[in-house]
Specification:
127 residues; mainly alpha; 4 helices
């Protein structure tokens, strides 16, 4: 029973971490480089997704974890963009590009690193 509770807490804190990273990075980007789209936010969220996906040994589970973490990061981006005083067309375009690219990149990274973890596990333990 304690293991399930610990697993749920990890997921909760992980999604909160990615939401916060997406929100904070997007707000900083809007403040210091308005009107520009940067892939730094997406890259940051993908980098934070990798440890959650690399502990699985199933590509499907890695894909699903990547989607979940990418969705949490996309929600952070949405909260930062939609929380502005004045929403412009550039902000809406940024949100659509950032949210879709974050979901896709996190899903691909999750599946890739889950596959690599499975191969590494086979090499180490011959399972």
């Amino acid at each position: 029973m304690a293991k399930k509770t610990k697993g749920k807490a990890v997921w909760l804190w992980g999604s909160a971490l990615l939401f916060g990273a997406g929100y904070l990075a997007t707000r900083l980007m809007i403040a210091f480089a308005p009107g520009r789209y940067s892939s730094l936010v997406t890259g940051l969220i993908v980098l934070l997704t990798i440890p959650f996906a690399a502990v699985t040994r199933s590509v499907l589970r890695g894909l699903l974890r990547g989607l979940f973490m990418g969705f949490s990061g996309s929600l952070g981006i949405a909260a930062a963009v939609l929380g502005q005083q004045q929403i412009t067309e550039v902000a809406v375009t940024f949100f659509l590009i950032a949210a879709s690219s974050t979901l896709i990149c996190c899903a691909v990274a999750g599946a890739l690193f889950a596959h690599l973890a499975a191969k590494r596990y086979e090499q180490l333990y011959g399972d």
